[in-house]
Amino acid sequence: MAIPTPADRPLRYLALGDSYTIGEGVDPGGAWPMQLARALRAEGLAVADPQVIATTGWTTDELDAAINAAAPPADFDLASLLIGVNNQYRGRDAGEYGRHFGALLERTIGFAGGNPGRAFVLSIPDWGVTPFAAGSGRDQAAIGRELDAFNATARAQCRARGVAFVDITPVSRARGAEERMLAGDGLHPSALMYAQWSALALPVVRGLLQTPPQTPPAPV
What is the value of pTM for the model shown? Predict the structure, then answer.
């Protein structure tokens, strides 16, 4: 089902995040937001390749500052958020993450025209299963527990705002140690892993785009 857009333009998509959104270690077309846009187009949904605001290593506050610098418009048809792994990696706590994430989620909704039904979040993958983690000397089980706490916070924030939450963490754990699912650094996902994430996001985002957009509430 094709979605009409003003002047028949493609739907605009903004992807916010860190290395997992920009696709560290893979060709640009292999990042999951790019794969998702192609998959949506293959289903007849006119979605442009995403505008990406993401850099390897960013924490929540660094992403927030980068958004300020980029100053994207607030008229995207779709917006996604995946952030937090670097907060965990640097030893920052889930409480701080929750505060930062909530503010970023509000901004994400704002970029989707103020419509929570056109925003979605991907969970943080578990890098603790990777060869990089195994060789790091860090407690791999503790990494998983900490990321579970971060993801529980993100899921609750999404539920409270009516934003779709796509849980890619289980597949990251099930297949994240496989060589072909990893980039050359043994840490970041390969395009094949990103394809798994895109496949999980596809039916969710298809549903969002096939639902008539909500009218943002009038200012008071």
Answer: 0.93
Q: How far apart are CA 47 and CA 40, in angstroms?
A: 7
> Looking at the DSSP assignment, which residues form a beta bridge with residue 30?
none
SS (H, E, C) the chain: CCCCCHHHCCECEEEEECHHHHCCCCCHHHCHHHHHHHHHHHCCCCECCCEEEECCCCCHHHHHHHHHHHCCCCCCCEEEEECCHHHHHCCCCHHHHHHHHHHHHHHHHHHCCCCHHHEEEECCCCHHHCHHHHCCCCCHHHHHHHHHHHHHHHHHHHHHHCCEEECCHHHHHHHCCCHHHECCCCCCECHHHHHHHHHHHHHHHHHHHCCCCCCCCCCC
Angle between helices 191-209 and 32-42 (to 10 degrees): 50
Q: Whole-angstrom Cα distance, residue 59 to residue 56? A: 9
**Phi and psi at residue 16, in whole multiples of 5°?**
-110, 140
Amino acid code (one letter) for 12: R
Tens digits of residue pLDDT in 23-53: 999 998 999 999 999 999 999 999 999 999 9
The CA-based dihedral angle spanning residues 218, 204, 162, 210, taken in that order and rounded to the nearest 10 degrees: 30
Give the pair of three-digit tokens for residue 192.
Answer: 């094949």
Task: Encode pLDDT of 113-143 as tens digits.
Answer: 999 999 999 999 999 999 999 999 999 999 9
- Please report, for residues 68, 110, 141, the alpha-carbon distance to residue 73 in angstroms, rounded to integers and kept in the order given: 11, 9, 41
